[in-house]
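Cross-posting from the modeling subforum.

Setting up a comparison between two proteins and wanted a second pair of eyes on the formatting. Protein 1 (sequence, then structure tokens):
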Amino acid sequence: MEWWEAFKEWFLSLGNKYNVNPYIFGGIYIGAIPFFFLSLGWTIKKIRKKKSFVLPLLLTSFFFISAYLYLLFVGKNIPVWVYVFIGIMIAYGVYSTFIKIKSASKN
């Protein structure tokens, strides 16, 4: 469990370094997961019924990036690579969500 203590120490140190509360970031990150999947399911259901899916899609997108929004708005001294990483994560999330919605809408 030495690796766990090292990870915990590193993770908590990020709070001071970037002026964010790591527990809030982690809570938003973990807490948004069920809402992401619920809104994704809602989006797919709306598409299958050929109804407007704008609101569920916007909610799905929001839940996907909510923890990163916290980091971007509250954080200080965030290195450029973090912005690049967040951009890559968002692009991948958009792509994978698009693929899931596209394949589900064909059924």
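Protein 2 (same layout):
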Amino acid sequence: MSRKAHRPSNRKLLGGIFAAFILLAALGSLLLEKAMDPFRTVERIKPADFYENANSLRGNIYQVDGVIMGSLGWSPQKGRLFSLRVTADGQDWPLPILVPAPLARLNLQKGQRYRVKVRVDESGLLVVEEMDKK
């Protein structure tokens, strides 16, 4: 009597291929999301450091990711000042950001989430260089 060769069933093979496909799709999605981040080379600001001593951050460029809380003021020469809620270390921090007059065309509204590239100016204020709505 001859023996049959032991072969894995087609179900197991198809299940393995499907699982590998799902894993590759998830990994590709993650890598694509990272690659699409326009500020991926810019360091994220640490709100605790900003509150401790904003002057020590002067001249540096950072990335801030947060939600617009509201408008704090407006000047035709300087631009619009907003409050941005940033979550870091399990805590919400309000950060003031200045949208300069050349970027005044942006329609910022309360509750919208933005990724922002900011420069800390001489007075310790966060001045927007680029903004990207999330």
